[in-house]
Design brief:
The structure holds two protein chains of two kinds. Chain A has eight helices and 17 strands. Chain A is α/β, with parallel strands linked by helices. The longest helix of chain B has 15 residues. The chains are: A alpha/beta, B mainly alpha.
Amino acid sequence: MKFRFEGVRIAGIQVVLPRRAVAFEDEMANFAFSAEQSLRLKKVMGFGSHRLVDAGTCASDLAVAGLEHLFGSGRVDREAVHALIVVTQSPDFFMPPTSNLIQGRVGLGREVYCLDINQGCAGFVIGLIEAFGLFAQPDVQRVVLVNADVMSRKTSPRDRNSWPLIGDGATITLVERDATSRVIHALCRMDGSRADALMIPAGGFRRPSDAESAVMVQDVNGNFRAADHLVMKGDAVFNFVQTEVPPLIYDTLALSGRSIDSVDRFLFHQPNKFMLQKLADKLATPYEKMPANIVENYGNGSGTSIPQVIWHNLRQDLLVRSMDVCLAGFGVGLTWAAMTMVLGPLAFCDAIEYSR
Amino acid sequence: VSAFLARLANILETDEVYPEDRLVEMANWDSVSALSVMAMADAQYGVSLMAEDLVSLATAGDLERFVLERVGGSPR
């Protein structure tokens, strides 16, 4: 589906990272591979260290810490928020919605519209689409978009296919009405027929968790995981990204009258450095224009990855000027979505660390 | 040596790969190499390989044939 938005902008970004950083080398002993084999994986995929929550920390804990920081520092006025959108695959509970829980914990008013969205690696673009859409309502001036996930809690530490790249965290994106902003274009595609490429097989209503779903089983590649854990078909996901994302980008750029060369930065979801460099090659854009350094520093945090790329690489620039950017997220669903916009100058672009 | 086998040798961090070489017996043949081969097939030949394709191919020559036969439109 095509989207077109006018009169809105991203006003600021707040990143929340768990304080605990764990290096790839310190976890190699958990994998059923030799150190030499795992170090080769590290080199090819570009792994380093990743940020993990402490036992018991929930997505809402990270989000609340970030929001309290923004309210406490005066960067956002608690009374001026009209809607709170929370994108997560790791809700505190099946019910109630995590957005309502956060509203209650940080004391947002009763007129604030709270909405949960179950999305993953495309979750920043999807969340922005929903946030921007709310501005069709004349009373809406400010929307807070939270992306938060603690996927390490649903990933097997003995799964070399997924564990080394998983990162936990939250990001808070302030979206505001702005009559002077340029038109924002987006394009979103979905294919539920390939939903099994990325899933947690047990724990929902289709297959409730039980003793059997907790049993660790070794797959053909040597990775151990249970049905309660995230499972990713690495080859299917790789082919999906390399096949579907380049046409998505070309079509989104065409919608907005841009070319590959006219875009200052391609701020993409961060699956790993390997896949991003292959994408950059396919799009014939230099690696410098497509930052790929989030997994090696913090891990892949699903919907938090794009705000993290912006904060980690561009915060100095974006506090003082604007850049022409193309965002893209791709993953669970399957879902792939891209968006073009003029980003910045931002009122804030900052990170805090969280520990219990 | 063909361009394909030279690319394969580069992925496997070895000097040369011969068509009759058995993939599973090669020192660096693992899931990391498999992903790199998939990336190479996609980037250089426009061919999408799946992990199960690779399992069904015994030798480097089989792999080369499999990829080259699918250039310009996969029969999948």
